[in-house]
Amino acid sequence: MTEVVPCPFTFANGRKCPGHITRVEIYKCDVTWTPHEDGKWRPSVTEVRSHCHLFCSEEAATLRLDDNGGMKFYRRYLPDSLDLTGIGEPG
């Protein structure tokens, strides 16, 4: 089972969002397709050149008004509990 990752969004009044991350979109990334032993081609993200958008279970945190900057993170600033190991890492 996947671990639930708390939403990092903070509302303007200082209240933390009670939701959890439901999806991550990676922007401006390089995808490489390679064949596997079963003969099927599989994709992998080899480099993230921009940012990620996090989506929350609570609609208020995910609203994309003016491209919600509160849910936009560069890789190095993603919450530690969001394990995207192997995504966009060299090798």
What are the SSEs and their pairings?
Layout: E1 21-26, E2 29-35, E3 41-48, E4 51-56, H1 59-62, E5 72-74
Antiparallel strand pairs: 1-4, 2-3, 4-5
Describe the structure.
- The chain has 91 residues and is mostly beta strands.
- The chain has one domain (1-91).
- The protein is built from one helix and five strands, in the order E-E-E-E-H-E.
- The chain has one helix at residues 59-62; strands at 21-26, 29-35, 41-48, 51-56, 72-74.
- The strands form two sheets. Strands 1-4-5 form a three-stranded antiparallel β-sheet. Strands 2-3 form a two-stranded antiparallel ribbon.
- The radius of gyration is 15 Å and the shape is elongated.
- The two termini are 27 Å apart.
- The model has no long low-confidence stretch (mean pLDDT 79).
